[in-house]
Design a protein that fits this description.
Layout: H1 3-31, H2 35-60, H3 67-98, H4 105-136, H5 145-203, H6 224-251, H7 255-280, H8 285-309, H9 313-323, H10 333-370, H11 377-434, H12 437-463, H13 470-473, H14 488-496, E1 499-506, E2 511-517, E3 522-527, E4 530-534, H15 539-553, E5 562-566, H16 572-578, E6 584-588, H17 592-597, H18 602-605, E7 614-617, H19 621-626, E8 632-637, H20 645-648, H21 653-661, E9 663-674, H22 680-693, E10 696-701, E11 707-713, H23 721-728, H24 731-738, H25 745-749, E12 752-754, H26 756-762, H27 775-779, H28 789-796, H29 814-830, H30 834-847, H31 852-855, H32 857-867
Parallel strand pairs: 5-6, 5-8, 6-7, 8-9
Antiparallel strand pairs: 1-2, 2-3, 3-4, 9-11, 10-11, 10-12
Helix pairs in contact: 1-2, 1-3, 1-4, 1-5, 2-4, 2-11, 3-4, 3-5, 4-11, 5-7, 5-10, 6-7, 6-10, 6-11, 7-10, 8-10, 8-11, 9-10, 10-11, 11-12, 15-16, 21-22, 22-26, 29-30, 30-32
Length: about 850
């Protein structure tokens, strides 16, 4: 095989993965992140690859063109057609917006339309990408087994290039350049590869196949190799789907964690392809079949081993996290990021590499029996590639849509293990049938016990499968459990001793768990290991996200008002909105298991799903907002953390713009933002992005020092004391807010951080977070598990304002205003905001020096200073 072809195909593999990552990002933003929508996009991409392999494989054997010249034209064609993909995506945007956005019968029909639209956009470049391997296979020299080995070398280097593409794109290029520039750079590389291939084709004549040997020709292998690679591809993809879900629970669901997992899996395939090439070269068909059966059985054993390994990984990861000093914030960010990536690669490698290496060996070994006539090598390689791609598509769809929801993650792994063992038995039987004479009888005689052993082994594996503790497996925040969790026993004690599992389900998009902490009676809900709601510890944030926009909007029960809540979770925020008696509330939730889990919060969320005014929509937030529909007086966005890949696009400028377009005149958008695990510069970016979209902004605490609630509107968001008191006088609202010690207007205003001017001053000069640059998606994971709350509070402190300054409907007499500042000071004090408490009391003293509540200021301030609470 010419070295030039190997180098070019290695780089081509890297660029191909760049396209897959970039195009998937663009189309998911268009179609939404619902599982069926993502599956439709991936299926369209893979379908193009398979179709291209099939078509170009059949054509290349009949052409007299130099394979490198054809390859060069394909690479240039990939680059040119890739330039058109963003334009085509913009062209189908109106159609996508009109598709059903809610999960249901119409949504499934809409998913078919999404697949067809994605296929229309991607069909040309993906077909050209899929045609590259069959075209270059014509360069393979030698007869029969030698030709197959040459193609296998190409395949191995192409997969190795894909590893490079994932690492460079996911860790370097996309974070620095954004999706648009990354895609443009990839097209330039394609053009360069195409020109280089054309030049190389002129310098190197076509190698003719070696003459046929003077022995009977090897019979055609028929469809058997294609069946093997198809089933093996489905099994390998099932492993990848399950591993990605499970390792995401340990490593987190960030874009870097997914890059780590994909790169690790591809690295295993590349190593396996290299080993398989050596095993297949020059071997007889019988030998190759025997080795292929052993590889398939070995992959099944390695897959089963992960059933026992995965439950131990959370504790091991937490231990290594602390031992490597990753909990130490004094380490520089780049060095910490490198060590964290190395740890994640090690954890992913332990789980994925053995089975992935076995999976990578299948294609070269199958080539060893499929290539029987070098003159038809393009057709053979194309058909084999198409079969492998078809298996990958089927495996991904079956695992994600059927197996995981029905059998769970552990059951899905067992199904894949069983399929692998069954395939190994079939391949072993094929080898027996290819044997001759007495040797065939011997092999057949030996094969029966092998098949029986595989069956007994599978039965034993099912019976002896380990028990997975939901609390152990769903522990994404294991590194934050502290020193006690550094051993496996300590980890389990920290997880289980005070906790009772109430609900656990492995849903179609996420793992959902509800548990109760016995000592505090706090019920919490976690999604993919991340706690997203609770009945006590997160109550203030969940209530204020719903109440604050309704309070500032001044919604009255007799208004024909409406609200939408994105992210149902515990239902507490939706319940808070219903306390204001709007005429219509839409609750948007993508994962059905979350809805079932929320029943455990009915005692604290007012059971909003039983409210006739509430309608549940099964969709993701972006698709819901982008679809044509009604306008809302209030929209609440309560996603998970922005470092999580699936939630990151709910914090971008384009998402906020979609939200603004769905607001009624004077409507208010309410957005949650965390202060933990995110550095001040990133917080400024999020506030700047929000303020760039909404003309008027106000910032509030959720839980002081931990969460923020941002309100955005086209109308002014000034403090109106009279309106606040009017809404707070309603019994349902008052009773709900009393649970977080909010009873009067000053209690609400204690959560007020800053006004529009203060928010813009705080965020001045910060870069915006957009769909293209994904700034927060790529930066926030670098601070994962870091305690950044104090730094963020300190960054906000200079921009806090007196909420009563300039408030509307405030009494004109100094005495009443002084009383309000005293009440505000006390509200600050109860929430441990001592500096602002003193400032409020000082203002009361300035307004009325004889005010009783303010007279104690001097002694109060001295005590705080001595306690170190006031600086």
């Amino acid at each position: 095989m010419p070295r030039a072809a190997i180098v070019l195909f290695f780089l081509s593999g890297a660029v191909g993965l760049v396209y897959e990552v970039v195009w998937l990002r663009l189309l998911v933003l268009l179609f939404g992140s619902a599982h069926l929508a993502v599956t439709a996009v991936l299926t369209a991409f893979m379908s193009g690859l398979g179709l291209g392999a099939l078509i170009f494989g059949r054509w290349v054997d009949r052409t007299g063109w130099h394979p490198l010249a054809v390859y060069g034209v394909l690479e240039i064609g990939i680059g040119v057609s890739a330039l058109a993909v963003p334009v085509l995506i913009d062209g189908i945007r109106p159609i996508a917006a009109s598709l059903p956005f809610a999960v249901g019968a119409t949504f499934h029909a809409g998913s078919l339309v999404r697949f067809l639209l994605a296929l229309a956009v991607l069909i040309v470049p993906t077909m050209l990408i899929g045609g590259t391997l069959p075209v270059l296979s014509r360069l393979a020299r030698g007869a029969q087994r030698g030709a197959g080995a040459g193609v296998s070398i190409l395949y191995a280097f192409n997969v190795a290039g894909a590893v490079l593409g994932v690492v460079v794109t996911g860790f370097i290029v996309l974070p620095l350049a954004g999706a648009a520039l990354t895609g443009a750079a990839a097209t330039a590389v394609n053009a360069a590869l195409g020109v280089a291939a054309l030049v190389a084709s002129r310098a190197r004549p076509i190698a003719k196949p070696a003459p046929a040997p003077a022995r009977p020709p090897t019979p055609d292998a028929g469809p058997f190799p294609r069946i093997v690679v198809g089933v093996a591809g489905a099994v390998a993809m099932t492993y990848e789907v399950v591993w990605t879900r499970l390792l995401g629970l340990v490593l987190g669901s960030s874009v870097y964690a997914f890059s780590v997992m994909l790169a690790t899996f591809l690295a295993g395939l590349a190593v396996g392809a290299a080993l398989g090439t050596r095993w297949a070269a020059g071997s007889s068909e019988r030998t190759v079949l025997r080795r292929l059966a052993g590889v398939l059985a070995g992959g099944a054993v390695a897959g089963y081993a992960t059933l026992h390994l995965l439950p131990a990984l959370p504790a091991a990861y937490a231990t290594a996290f602390h031992e490597l000093g990753l909990a130490d914030e004094s380490a520089g960010l780049p060095w910490r990021a490198v060590r964290l990536a190395a740890l994640q690669f090690a954890v992913a490698g332990a789980a994925m590499l053995p089975a992935a290496v076995c999976a990578g060996m299948v294609f070269p070994l199958a080539l060893g029996i499929a290539v029987t006539d070098p003159r038809r090598i393009g057709r053979t390689v194309g058909a084999l590639s198409a079969a492998s791609t078809a298996g990958t598509i089927i495996g991904a769809a079956l695992a994600g849509i059927v197996l995981v929801p029905l059998a769970g993650l552990q059951g899905s792994l067992l199904v894949a293990v069983g399929a692998g063992l069954l395939l190994a038995t079939v391949v072993r039987g094929r080898g027996a049938r290819r044997s001759q004479g007495r040797r065939r009888l011997a092999v057949v005689g030996a094969d029966a016990p092998v098949g029986a052993f595989h069956g007994m082994m599978m039965a034993q594996l099912v019976a002896a499968r380990p028990t997975w503790e939901p609390l152990d497996m769903n522990s994404e925040y294991a590194p934050e459990l502290g020193a006690a969790a550094r051993t496996r026993d300590g980890f389990r004690a920290a997880q289980r001793d005070d906790t009772e599992v109430l609900f656990y389900e492995e849903g179609i998009t996420a793992n959902v768990l509800v548990a109760r902490q016995r000592s505090t009676d706090n019920i919490w809900l976690s999604i993919d290991g991340k706690i997203d709601a609770s009945s006590r510890s997160d109550l203030a944030t969940q209530l204020l996200l719903g109440h604050l926009p309704m309070l500032w909007r001044g919604v009255r029960p007799d208004d024909a008002s409406s609200a939408a809540v994105i992210g149902y979770a515990s239902g507490i925020t939706t319940g808070a909105v219903t306390r204001h008696a709007p005429s219509r509330v839409v609750a948007v939730e993508i994962e059905p298991a979350v809805i079932r889990a929320s029943a455990h919060f009915d005692d604290v969320n007012h059971a909003p799903l039983r409210d006739p005014a509430v309608r549940l929509v099964g969709s993701d937030g972006r698709t819901f907002l982008a679809s044509a529909g009604d306008a809302y007086d209030v929209i609440v966005s309560e996603p998970s953390n922005p470092w999580m890949s699936i939630a990151a696009n709910l914090f971008t400028r384009e998402f906020f713009e979609a939200g603004r377009r769905r607001l009624a005149p004077g409507g208010i958008f309410s957005q949650w933002i965390q202060l933990y695990g995110m550095r001040p510069d990133d917080l400024r970016s999020l506030v700047a992005t929000f303020a760039a979209v909404f003309p008027r902004v106000a910032v509030f605490w959720g839980i002081p020092g931990r969460d923020l609630v941002l309100l955005g509107s086209e109308a002014a968001l000034d403090v109106d004391v009279g309106r606040l008191e009017g809404v707070l006088s309603r019994a349902p609202v008052a009773a709900d807010l009393a649970r977080i010690d909010v009873r009067v207007a000053e209690d609400v205003l204690a959560f007020y951080v800053t006004d529009d001017a203060g928010a813009r001053a705080f965020a001045a000069g910060a870069p915006l977070n957009t769909d293209d640059n994904g700034r927060i998606e790529f930066r926030a994971p670098l601070s994962l598990h870091a305690d950044t709350r104090s730094a963020n509070v300190a960054a906000l402190a200079p921009f806090t304002v007196d909420p009563l300054a300039g408030a509307a409907n405030l009494e004109p007499d100094a005495e009443r205003r002084a009383e309000r500042h005293v009440a505000l000071g006390r509200a600050f004090y109860r929430r441990e905001m001592y500096g602002r408490a003193v400032a409020a009391l000082r203002e009361a003293q300035a307004l009325r020096p004889t005010e009783t509540g303010a007279l104690r200021l001097e002694s109060y301030e001295r005590v705080l200073r001595e306690a170190g609470e006031l600086r």
